[in-house]
Amino acid sequence: MKTIIYMVRHGESPYNEGNERTRGLTPKGKIDIEKVTKLLIGEGIDMIISSPYTRAILSVEGLAEHLKLDIKVFEDLRERHFASNIIENAELMSSIRESFNDLNHTLPGGESNADCQKRAISVLKPVLKEHRGKKIAIGTHGLVMTLMMNHFDPAFGLEFLNQLKKPDIYKMQFEELELEEVTRMWND
C-alpha cells in the first residue's frame, strides 16, 4: 500500500517583514502558490500538515480550502534555528555548507542539522505509519524538507538544497517507511 507525501516548499517570502515565524509571502509568492494549489488539487490529497511558520501555512492554505481539509500544524516541522543572534547571509551560507559536512555543526545558540532532522522525522514517521495508503501534503521549508528527504535517501543533501526553488514540490512515494520514488512536480 503506497503512501504519498507531497513536500511543498513555501513560496517567496519577504525577509524584511515580521520575524522568522510570522513573515508571509511576497506578491510573486502568492501568485506562485495559486499555481501550486491548481497543480495539487487533482492529486487526491487526504491530509494537509504544515510547519507553524506563516509562509508554510499560506503555501498550503489555498489547497486546504479547495479540498475542505484542515491544516494540522506541527511545531516540530518548523525550519532549522540557525543562531541565537542575527547573522550575515555569508556566515549563514557557510554554516549551512559546514552542516552538511558535520551534521552536528551549529552556530552559537542554534540547532544542528542532526537535531533538526531528528525532530522533523519524529513527525513524519508517525504520519507515514498512521496514514498508510493516504496522500499527504506538507507545507515546509527548504532545509527541513531536504533533511527529511535525506533521512530516507542520502542523495538529498547540500546540492539538492541549493537547487530548490520557492515554491517547489516533490512527490515522495513510500511503501511502509521505505522511500521508493521521488518526482519533482514544480517546473516553473
Automatic annotation (TrEMBL):
Return the CDD domains for the record: HP_PGM_like
What InterPro entries does the entry give? His_Pase_superF_clade-1 (IPR013078), His_PPase_superfam (IPR029033), PG/BPGM_mutase_AS (IPR001345), PGM_Phosphatase (IPR050275)
Looking up SMART domains in the UniProt record yields:
PGAM (SM00855)
Checking Gene3D superfamilies in the record gives: Phosphoglycerate mutase-like
What is the protein's given name? Histidine phosphatase family protein
Species this chain originates from: Paenibacillus germinis
